Amino acid sequence: MPKGANQKLKMMYLAKIFHEQTDEEHGLTMPQIIERLGEYDVNADRKTLYADFEELRRFGLDIINEHMGHNTFYSLASREF
To answer: Which residue, 50, 20, 23, is CA-closest to 34?
Structure first.
């Protein structure tokens, strides 16, 4: 997959997406996350995003996943104010 112009900012955009577009009751599927990153000219695939989510968790973001039927939704559960 060719790299997007903003590839170095991928983790920051991921955190932004989780903060602005998810909460405990509203998650995004993997295809939706990939689409949102594409809007920032960042390319990502499913396998690398799993590792990215783990890195964000290590950084302190409470990223959870919830299985609903055949879909898995990812969201940022708790937030600091």
So the answer is: 50
Q: What φ, ψ does residue 3 adopt, rounded to 5°?
A: -80, 145
Q: Using an 8 Å Cβ cutoff, are 76 and 60 in contact? A: no
Cα of first residue to Cα of last residue in the chain, in angstroms, is 37
7: CB partners within 8 A, 6+ apart:
42, 43
Each residue's pLDDT, cut to its tens digit, for the chain (81 residues) gives: 567 788 899 999 999 999 999 998 999 999 999 999 999 999 999 999 999 999 999 999 999 999 999 999 999 998 665
Residues 36-53 as b or e (16 or more Cβ within 10 Å = b): bbeebebbbeeeebeebb
